[in-house]
Amino acid sequence: MSDADTAPFHGVLTRFSYQNVPGGDGNRSIPPWQLTEDLLSPRRLDFRLAVFEMTCAASLLGQTQQDFEWILIIDRRLPERYRIKIERLLVGRRRTHLYEYQPGEDLGNVGWLRRYIVQGCSHLLTTQLDDDDALPRNFIEVLQRRVRRQAASLPIQVAASTRSDQWELLSSARAPLGYRCAWHRGDWITSAGLSLLSPVSPDCLTVLSLNHLLADIWTSPARGAGLQRLLLEKWGEAARRPETTRFIAARLDEFQQRVRRLSGASSLPEDGGFIDLTAEVGAVVVGNHFLNDQYLRLLERKSGRSRAQGPESFPNVTLRFDRFRERSCLFRKCWSNYWRLLRISCTRSGRWRQRARMLIWTSWRFLRA
Predict the structure, then answer these.
(1) Residue 125 pairs with which residues in a beta bridge?
(2) CA–CA dist 40, 56 (Å, integer)
(3) DSSP H or E run through 182
(4) Residue 118: which residues within 8 A CB-CB, separation 6 or more?
(5) Which residues are CB-neighbours of 360 under 8 A, at least 6 positions away?
(6) Distance between CA atoms of 236 and 152, rounded to whole angstroms?
(7) Hey, how many other C-beta atoms are within 10 angstroms of the C-beta on 160?
């Protein structure tokens, strides 16, 4: 595409507390050992809605460019009072939709999204933003400009910022507004703001077909030892385990097959297809808290962790620190959170010695968090 072309249809996709099933979503499914609490329990929904208001919703409502459709994927059993709360929170934004996820549905395919796409669009641009993450204020503006400017020489284009900051949603007397730190798990791209441009067709892909770990290597043909070397160069010791290489290889095969079906090409180029937005938008923000599926992230050791001071801690991202202060009771370290972490550690897969070490480590880190 060039600047003269018609702008692609742009949809931002946010997943809000819906029950996923293995194979139903091209992006991920929640392991059984993490499902220790009903996703639709009032306690969990009250918490997630508060986090959503402070992070995801605040950052999208604060975007400098509002020319996009926002689709929130919800569970079909979501209680009516929570639907009403979401609608009231976003009442000022007309181009916002609640979509009921159907069990077993492939959200990586365009079928479910067609009802929102404007007729005549040649390309579909979708952006992923989970309900506890946030985007820089100019993210949508820069993304749309870069996508229109860059020729679509490949069947699809992937775009993202390669930098992530973390907001630790843990309120205490020492840190009333929680903590701020840089991403610590490895030099890979997070899902916040991950975007995919695909030509509109019956096999059109959404960003939920792409695992964020593949964002900048999705065209790679490397497998086996070659893929492990590539991952070690990019992620360091985080890619040392053989199961990591096998997992990434399987995800690459799956996604590349979908792209070949979309394009009709027998092979893919070895590089290209990734648009790096980092220099223009800066870091996206990932939320850490006790009701995150990735619950261990809050307890892991991080360098450069400091107390959040307010908007100046994340200067290019709109976040609701006022609401965090008002709802701080939800984010204080308490024994109910500790017992939940112990239950998860006890039910996690692995040998009893691994689970015992996990229990000890979880207890120690919780007390020091």
Answers:
(1) 10, 197
(2) 19
(3) strand 179-182
(4) 9
(5) none
(6) 31
(7) 29
Tokens of 229: 């070397």
CB neighbour class for 145 (10 Å; exposed up to 12, middle 13-18, buried from 19): middle
Q: What is the pLDDT of residues 42-90, one digit of tens each?
A: 989 999 999 999 999 999 999 999 999 999 999 999 999 999 999 999 9
Measure Cα distances from 365 to 30, 180, 360 in Å: 24, 17, 9
pTM as predicted? 0.90
Q: Which helix (H) or strand (E) holds 196?
A: strand 195-199
Q: State whether the Cα torsion 141-310-92-126 is positive or negative.
A: positive
Please report the DSSP string for 103-145 in residue order: TT--TTBGGGGGGGSPTT-SEEEEEE--TTEE-BTTHHHHHHH
- What are the Cα distances from residue 43, in Å, to 39, 50, 82, 138? 9, 11, 12, 34
Look up tokens 């490397």; give the residue.
222
